[in-house]
Amino acid sequence: MIKTYTMGTTKSNNRDATASHSETLNDRRKDNEQRLFSFIFPMYNKSLGKKIFSSRSNAIQNPMGLMVRLGTVLLLAGAVFLIFELQPAFEQLHLDRINSTWGYAFIVLTTSLLVFQIGFFLFNLYLYWRYKPIESVSDEELPMCTVIVPAYNEGELVWKTLHSVANSDYPADKIQLIAIDDGSQDDTWSWMLKAKQELGDRLSIYQQPENKGKRHALHRGFNLGIGEVFVTVDSDSIVKTDTLRNLVSPFVVKESCGAVAGNVQVLNNERAILPRMLNVSFVFSFEFIRSAQGQLETVLCTPGALAAYRRDAVMACLPDWINQTFMGQPSDIGEDRAMTNMILKQGYHVMFQKNAYVLTNVPEDYTGLYKMFIRWERSNVRENIMMSKFVFKNFREGSKVGARLLFFNQWLKIIMAYPFTILMLLFVITQPVLFLSSTLFSILILTSIPVLFYARRYSSYESIWAYSYSLLYTFGLFWITPYAIATAGRRGWLTRGLSAK
């Protein structure tokens, strides 16, 4: 059983010991982290937990990125101009809608949804302001931890992943590090062997006889693990030195904690334009949205890139998880969301640790991006159906209103996917200029929230990518959700293939 804090003098003494321990190890952590990331990524910035460059350096090294952002700004500025110029046309369109039954119904529906979304955002903003990550506990309090790294066609990056985990500021005698090659077709296994030679008994490596998928590789790791806490790390991800102890600490502090989500940022955000867009999107998705969900202790998905699970919770649902099916077919996607759902169903709380950073690779081209999103959306559809079977029951102690509100918001996006797609296409056909100007203006207004959030926390210059990403998603990826709903029963990882890193 993992120790939990008690009230009174013991709690105070533990906190004092933790604070003292943190101070004495501060220099060592900084040295270890600097040594690791200067070894793996020479331009890594240890203070932010991400690679950053100055604005001038970005402009010089990536003129295409500068052109994209400049074009984005000019396009949105043009939309503002058109909104004012076309004001009479918008007023006439509004009057025409009011005077028709369908038009009036459309106005009522969109206004109602807008009011709900504004209220939901304000609720999330309130939760975000209240959220605080749990501070790291002392070495003595940290439990035995099994870190599982499944890999498929990852090449050299799996070696870097394993070294980043091994370099963690976590008691060496309390880490069991397991890497599993899921039948890779490239040199992944040779890089695992190299890591094994360098790390010795600190690392155990296994090879699947054939490619069975990430879920089966993790299943083998869970069965091999001896830790009180399981940590899963994707093989294309790098963890910071203090990530593991920050990720695991909630299990010590809260006995009701069943799983913890890490804070995911983009590793390859200097290699291509799409990763730079996604990095800004990820920051808002994790540091704002998951912070709010974490305050409710109902994070809906513990990311595959970095997540931690209480052993007892995993073992209680492991048979159902590995044998999960959808529409009669074995589930080979969404293993992270499925595990989260099954742990929530048991009555555990799922938390978020903003101070547990991981950097992960994302697709660098349009094809890889839309395939990744299709996989995510199919999983979202499946697991929302699964969640509907328990979320309105007495599935855990305490308030369940927050969990149900999050669930409702998820379903609202799915339900409205087809109606809004159809209405958008009708608007494009009947009023193309008004559609373009109003859509661009809406992007400017709504996307300013993540832009300001990223600018305040990281970089004003880089925050402009949020606008570019919104343009891409609105005009180039709008079809993802409707398509994923229609094909939710299809199998396949879609983005798995030989590494090109």
Automatic annotation (TrEMBL):
<feature type="transmembrane region" description="Helical">
    <location>
        <begin position="104"/>
        <end position="129"/>
    </location>
</feature>
<keyword id="KW-0328">Glycosyltransferase</keyword>
<dbReference type="GO" id="GO:0085029">
    <property type="term" value="P:extracellular matrix assembly"/>
</dbReference>
<dbReference type="GO" id="GO:0030213">
    <property type="term" value="P:hyaluronan biosynthetic process"/>
</dbReference>
<keyword id="KW-0808">Transferase</keyword>
<keyword id="KW-1133">Transmembrane helix</keyword>
<protein>
    <submittedName>
        <fullName>Hyaluronan synthase</fullName>
    </submittedName>
</protein>
<keyword id="KW-1003">Cell membrane</keyword>
<dbReference type="InterPro" id="IPR029044">
    <property type="entry name" value="Nucleotide-diphossugar_trans"/>
</dbReference>
<feature type="compositionally biased region" description="Polar residues">
    <location>
        <begin position="1"/>
        <end position="23"/>
    </location>
</feature>
<keyword id="KW-0472">Membrane</keyword>
<dbReference type="GO" id="GO:0050501">
    <property type="term" value="F:hyaluronan synthase activity"/>
</dbReference>
<keyword id="KW-0812">Transmembrane</keyword>
<feature type="transmembrane region" description="Helical">
    <location>
        <begin position="66"/>
        <end position="84"/>
    </location>
</feature>
<dbReference type="Pfam" id="PF13641">
    <property type="entry name" value="Glyco_tranf_2_3"/>
</dbReference>
<feature type="transmembrane region" description="Helical">
    <location>
        <begin position="467"/>
        <end position="486"/>
    </location>
</feature>
<dbReference type="GO" id="GO:0005886">
    <property type="term" value="C:plasma membrane"/>
</dbReference>
<feature type="transmembrane region" description="Helical">
    <location>
        <begin position="435"/>
        <end position="455"/>
    </location>
</feature>
<feature type="region of interest" description="Disordered">
    <location>
        <begin position="1"/>
        <end position="27"/>
    </location>
</feature>
<feature type="transmembrane region" description="Helical">
    <location>
        <begin position="411"/>
        <end position="429"/>
    </location>
</feature>
